[in-house]
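Need tokens for this chain, all 290 residues.
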Amino acid sequence: MKEIVIISGKGGTGKTSVAAALAFVAQNIVMADCDVDAADLHLILKPSVLSQEDFYSGVKAHIDTSICISCGQCEQVCRFSAIDHAEGFYKVNELDCEGCGYCYHICPVQAISLPQQKVGQCFISQTRIDCKLVHAKLGIGADNSGKLVALVKKEARKTAEQEKRDFILVDGSPGIGCPVISSLSGADFALLVTEPTLSGLSDLQRVWQLAKKFSLPCGCIINKADINPAIASKTESFLHSENITHIDNLPYDEDFHQAITLGQSLVEYNHDKWNSRFTKIWQQITKEIQ
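Here are the structure tokens for all 290 residues:
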């Protein structure tokens, strides 16, 4: 079983469009959406949820007003201004609380607890194509997205093993933060999706530096390559200098926007134009990891 992660150094490069198109031409796969902060692959694959699991991570302070003696020590020591006094009671503003536990340890009557927080959910779903999708939803204002990504990948591996699938195709997060690091962990190949702009090239170089830390073989697709041939050429030179496999240059095409608007993959929206192209891309990727 091989794991392929699709990432980009910045948002808006067409990463999810590429992931969805590959899902429709690939065989024997399980899909995983590890962009847990802003998951959107489900908008195209339209999955039906088969099972779900609550995700708990981190703690927040809670004041039991029936025990609290209103001494105010917790408010005094809170460095995040997360504790307020109103209507005769001390209360914790959960969005401001960082869960450091100082108030918990200083409370003279043990009126403060640190309950673990439910910050998201992980789902295993059946898509409208012959594959399962493991995806997640992170709560508003919640952190620990890297841990939620790890749970998504764990469930994707388990599902792939149970169904004897050959590949896990992961739609990762943009950028180089914790969710991306977690997405790359344990992967066999990283597909980098970029665009021919100065910021696109800079962010491609950053995400490549991250991928190198994992000693991952990488390939790259330059999307909208024809809108700036000069930067596209610089990007190709960079790929060559770093021995990154240049998978393909995709043209700017209104099909990307139209397909997303209709909740379709490119392969569905315009089969004659995109099916053979993404089939070749998938074949080249699988050849790289054999």
